[in-house]
Design a protein that fits this description.
Blueprint lengths: L4 H21 L2 E8 L2 E8 L5 H15 L7 H6 L8 H16 L9 H6 L12 H8 L7 E4 L2 E4 L9 H18 L5 E5 L2 E5 L9 E5 L12 E6 L4 E6 L4 E4 L2 E4 L2 E2 L4 E2 L4 E8 L2 H14 L1 H9 L5 E8 L2 E6 L10
Antiparallel strand pairs: 1-2, 2-5, 3-4, 5-6, 6-9, 7-8, 9-14, 10-11, 12-13, 14-15, 15-16
Length: about 325
C-alpha cells in the first residue's frame, strides 16, 4: 500500500464506524391499531415517528378494498356503481386474477356469498341445502369478472367481490414500501398475522416468527409453536382451518370454501404458511393451498419456485409436516 493511500483508508474506516454507531443508536419505533377489521403492529428503526404516514397509507388501502366501508371502491363495485377503480384496487384485482388462473380457481375473490351462506360471514342457523348452494354458484367464478375499458365488468350484476384473503397481505406490502422509501433498513410489519420484514430486530438478530401448532381447542388459546422461522427480508402469510370451524349435526365445517363445489373443503392441510417477496401473493396462495390440498399444492409450487411453504397436515389422524426444501435453512432448531 502506498503511503498516500493510508489517510484515505483511515478516513473510510472511521466513516464506516460512525455510520454503524449511528445506525445502532437509532431507536426502534412502534405503532399499532385497528385496520381492515383486524389489528396491525409495526416496528421500525428510524429517528422519526412515521405512524401518521403509515396509517394514511393503510386507510387508503381500506378505502379501496374494505367490505365494511360503504364508500370503498370494492363496495361501490359490488353495488354496481359506474366508477373507475383506483390503482390500489386494480393492483389487488389483477394479482388475484393471476393467482386464480394459476390455481385453477382455488383462489377466487367472488366466493364470498358462499362463505356467508355457510355461516362465516353473517351467521345462519340452517345448514345450506344443495338448491341454495347451486343458486349461488351460478354467479360465483373469477372468470366472470374482468377489467375492461377502465371499469370492472361483471357477467352478472349479483356477483360480489371480496378481497379479504389478499387485502391484509397487500396492506403489509404497502406499509413496507413506505418504510423502504424512507430508507428504513430494519422493520417488521404485521397485519392480522400477515408479515413483511427487513433487516434485524432491536436485539440485533434476524426477525423470527412462530408457526402455531394446530389445535381444535381454540378456547385454550395457548399458541403452542410448531416451529420458528427466520423471516428476515421476506413476506409471510398463514391460513388455517383448525381454529375456524363450527360443528353442525355432528359434522365439522371448515371456514375455507371450495369455489368448485360450493362446500367447505375436506382436504388434509390444517395450516398453510407461505413465504415469498410479496405478502399479498403469500396471503392469496396460503388460502388457495387450503382449498387445493397437499398434492395439488405441491404441483403449483413446482411452477412457482419463488414460493416457500410450511404445511401442517393430517396424516391418518396424526399431524405431520411438509415444507419446501428451500425453506429448510429458515427453520430454526
Amino acid at each position: 500500500m502506498k503511503k498516500w493511500q493510508i489517510p484515505f483508508l483511515a478516513i473510510l474506516i472511521v466513516g464506516t464506524i460512525l455510520i454503524i454507531r449511528q445506525q445502532q443508536n437509532m431507536p426502534y419505533q412502534r405503532c399499532s391499531g385497528l385496520i381492515f377489521g383486524t389489528t396491525y403492529s409495526i416496528i421500525y428503526q428510524y429517528d422519526e415517528d412515521l405512524h401518521p404516514e403509515l396509517l394514511k397509507q393503510l386507510k387508503e388501502v381500506d378505502a379501496a378494498l374494505s367490505m365494511f366501508n360503504e364508500e370503498s371502491t370494492i363496495s361501490k363495485i359490488n353495488q354496481n356503481e359506474d366508477i373507475k377503480p383506483d390503482q390500489m384496487f386494480l393492483d389487488v384485482f389483477q394479482l388475484a386474477q393471476e393467482i386464480s388462473a394459476d390455481t385453477d380457481g382455488a383462489f377466487d375473490i367472488t366466493v364470498a356469498p358462499l362463505v356467508n351462506l355457510w355461516g362465516f360471514g353473517f351467521k345462519h342457523d340452517i345448514e345450506p341445502d344443495r338448491q341454495s348452494i347451486d343458486s349461488l354458484r351460478q354467479f360465483i367464478g373469477w372468470q366472470k369478472v374482468s377489467y375492461k375499458g377502465g371499469r370492472i365488468a361483471k357477467k352478472d350484476p349479483r356477483i360480489m367481490l371480496d378481497c379479504s384473503a389478499i387485502a391484509k397481505g397487500y396492506g403489509a406490502d404497502v406499509a413496507a414500501r413506505l418504510l423502504d422509501e424512507k430508507g428504513v433498513k430494519n422493520y417488521l410489519v404485521e397485519i392480522g398475522g400477515e408479515v413483511v420484514s427487513k433487516g434485524i430486530s432491536e436485539k440485533r438478530v434476524p426477525w423470527k416468527i412462530g408457526v402455531v401448532k394446530p389445535t381444535e381447542e381454540p378456547q385454550l388459546d395457548n399458541h403452542e409453536m410448531q416451529t420458528i422461522l427466520n423471516v428476515t427480508d421476506k413476506a409471510m402469510a398463514t391460513s388455517g382451518n383448525y381454529r375456524n370451524f363450527y360443528y353442525k349435526g355432528g359434522r365439522k365445517y371448515a371456514h375455507t370454501i371450495d369455489p368448485a363445489t360450493g362446500r367447505p373443503v375436506q382436504h388434509n392441510i390444517l395450516s398453510a404458511t407461505v413465504l415469498c417477496n410479496r405478502c399479498a401473493r403469500a396471503d392469496a396462495y396460503a388460502t388457495a393451498f387450503m382449498v387445493m390440498g397437499l398434492e395439488k399444492a405441491q404441483k403449483v409450487l413446482e411452477r412457482n419456485p419463488d414460493l416457500m411453504v410450511y404445511f401442517i397436515y393430517d396424516n391418518n389422524g396424526k399431524n405431520d409436516v411438509w415444507y419446501s426444501p428451500s425453506l429448510k435453512e429458515k427453520i430454526l432448531p
